[in-house]
Amino acid sequence: MKLQTATRLGLYAIMELARDPTRTLSAAELGERFGVSTHSLAKVLGTLSAAGFVQGGRGASGGYRFTGNRRRITLMDIVALFEPAPGRRAKEPGEDTEIGSTLQRVLTEIDEIAEATLRSISIETMLRSRS
Length: 131
Fold this sequence. Notes:
The chain has helices at residues 5-18, 27-34, 38-50, 75-82, 98-119, 123-129, and strands spanning 54-57, 63-66. It has 131 residues and is mainly α.
């Protein structure tokens, strides 16, 4: 499973903000930490905000802070915001052939295992493993 850049940024931002839910960080501060533009990160933060995982404000005292539950939110909860659901992705060339179909079954199984793993790991677990 290869994750899109937005997905990885979403995971980075959630983990950084969840480290200290009382702290507010601007998109610029987060972007600087991860070496990405504020514009790219602002889109990601908007998605996380719409999902209720972060709260954002504009202006001089603006920024983002984590508002979710670190024990209940899993990595898959974040990944699902940015990645197409299984079965909703575009067909690849050759998938309609016998060989392509066989390969696709294996790749689907790999994706299912990856998804189950991501569902089993909470933000809390990730933050604890950093120590």
